[in-house]
Design goal:
This protein has about 60 residues and is mainly α. Helix content is about 60%, strand content about 0%. The chain is globular and about 40 Å long.
Length: about 60
């Protein structure tokens, strides 16, 4: 039986979620810093969403 993707039913693509989580965990950034970096790339998101992604997809 194939495994379900943990990214299913999310509004944003897998690559954006992983990029945001990677930036937060790899560099000394706040959630707002990650939101600002994504906004520079045309992606509007709330910092609580980044927080939830880090809690779900982080280590």
């Amino acid at each position: 039986m194939p495994r379900r993707s943990p990214f299913k039913h999310h509004r944003f693509p897998r690559d954006i979620i992983l990029c945001a989580v990677r930036w937060y965990l790899r560099y000394p950034l706040s959630y707002q810093d990650v939101v600002d970096l994504l906004a520079e790339r045309g992606i509007t998101i709330d910092r609580s969403t980044v927080y939830r992604w880090v809690q779900k997809f982080g280590p």
